[in-house]
Amino acid sequence: SQRIIIDTDPGVDDAIALWLALASPELEVLGVTVVAGNVALKDTVRNACKIVALSGKTSTPIYAGAPGPLVRDQVYGKYAHIGAFSNELVPDSELQPQAEHAVDFLVRTLRKAAQDNDPITICAIGPMTNLALALGMHPDVARGIRQIVTMSCAFTALGHRVPWAEFNVYADPHAAEKVFTSGVPLVVMPLDMTFQALIGADDIDAIRQDGGKPGESIAALLSAFDRSDLTRFGREGGPVHDATTIAYLLQSGLFSGQKARVGVAVSGNTAGYTYADFYNKLPTPPNALVMQKVDEYGFFSLLRRVLSRYGAH
Ligand code: BDR
Ligand code: CA
């Protein structure tokens, strides 16, 4: 099985990504590193603990990381006012994070992976502060990373947080820049692609029916936080951005894209703006495989199939 670390700021779509990964024997989740993002760190950590607990994989260690971005002022997601998931949406649990800081865990684990010549895949589904701190303080950890599969960036589908940027990059552009220039191979799942897979009522019903406790929570979360918007997406259904990173590791053929140099504006009025050099105009070589298309039907079939393992006893 493939060894992964999930760096996350749960978050509804983070929750779906985590449950998907934790139900997949193909993936060995070495740790969940948590960062502030959608909500404050204490709430993303609380949410991560409840999500992992509900999966039954309670031996998966959770590490609290950076409470805010490297340089810019803190911004939270759209549902920041709600804070942690209520116990009605995701049942409470006793599970606690480890004492070790997320960045220390990353450095320790990735160095070991580099030594053993057995690099680890990182799924980055929140602001990239933890990863930037690890790479910034100890650049040698890059050798312990096989690839970073990141849900971030927007190249044409801009505007869901501010008109010029996607949230994970907007929330910490300096961290994104550190990661993009680290030399680690990237797979980028941008909004342009994630907005092509909109979950509708039928898939939500099926996940509620067959997905055990996590399935019930997913259905509750997707209904509690309105993710559908007919005027924005042109049809019914809402995006589940972060889950695409795990789906990519399970079934990469669902996605297609192109190699490009990806970069980010870190200052000025459009900080967080990302570009992909599809025309090779820059002297710098590609650092990313940028996904441009997803097989929507195949993606939701995979989600339903994997999550149904929680219901099968
Ligand atoms: C990203 O921002 C967050 O709101 C989601 O969890 C996702 O990681 C989408 O832009
Ligand atoms: Ca997220």
What would you note in describing this structure?
This protein is of the alpha/beta class and 313 residues long. The chain has helices at residues 12-22, 41-55, 102-115, 129-137, 167-170, 173-180, 191-194, 201-210, 212-224, 230-233, 243-250, 296-307, and strands at 2-8, 27-34, 62-64, 120-124, 145-151, 186-189, 198-199, 238-239, 255-260, 262-264, 274-276, 288-294. Strand 2, helix 2 (41-55) and strand 3 (62-64) form a beta-alpha-beta unit. Helix 8 runs antiparallel to helix 9. It binds beta-D-ribofuranose and calcium ion (CA). Beta-D-ribofuranose binds at residues 11, 13-14, 38, 77, 125-126, 151, 166-168, 191, 241-242.
Tell me the series of helices and strands, N- to C-terminal: EHEHEHEHEHHEHEHHHEHEEEEH
Give me the Rg, rounded.
Answer: 18 Å
Number of helices: 12
Briefly note the structural class of the backbone. alpha/beta
What level of helicity do the residues show?
25-40%
Q: Stretches where pLDDT falls below 50 for ≥5 residues?
A: none
**Taking strands numbered 1, 2, ... along the chain, how are they ordered across the largest sheet?**
3-2-1-4-5-6-12-9
- The rounded distance between the terminal residues' Cα atoms is 23 Å
Let me know the largest β-sheet. Answer: 8 strands, mixed
Pfam families: IU_nuc_hydro
Organism: Rahnella inusitata
GO molecular function: hydrolase activity
Keywords: Glycosidase, Hydrolase
